[in-house]
Amino acid sequence: MDAPTLISRYEKAKSKRYNWDHHWQEVADLVLPTREFNATYTPGEKRRNRIFSDVAPEAADSLASALSGMLTNTSTRWFNLAPSNPRLKQNASVKKYLHDATHLMLEYFDSADSGFAVASHEMYLDLVCFGNTALDSKPKPFRTSI
């Protein structure tokens, strides 16, 4: 696709979600004041002035932590690489290679270099509060020799 087409699609999608921006900003103001949708804040401006009880922010953080612990717990083997081809599933060298690759990937996700633990918790907070999410982190390059 060319740039004008992509920009046009983006603008259409943005206009369709216009009402949601206001709803999401209200949720952010009451539950997760660090997020901005259609409000801009100056550095140092108070953002918690609409929160009279910490029940909602604490509940959101608690659910995000539970999701993190149950879905992407870095102390467990929460995913496994496997071939889709049934013949390759029986091949011992393929199994070993994929087992080792899974181990390296999990090791990297668990490292401070990846930033995965922090980014995934923020992702789960967004999912809990807004019903959708995107994962973004600025990891250092993944280097390995398999």
Portion in helices = 55-70%
What percent of residues are in strands? under 5%
Q: Note the gap between the termini.
A: 36 Å
Average per-residue pLDDT, rounded, comes to: 88
Spans of at least 5 consecutive residues with low confidence? none
Q: Quickly count the domains.
A: 2
Explain this structure.
This protein is mainly alpha-helical. It folds into two domains: 1-52, no CATH class; 53-146, no CATH class. The chain is built from six helices and no strands. The chain has helices spanning 3-16, 18-30, 55-71, 86-89, 92-110, 116-130. α3 (55-71) packs across α6. It is extended. The model has no long low-confidence stretch (mean pLDDT 88).
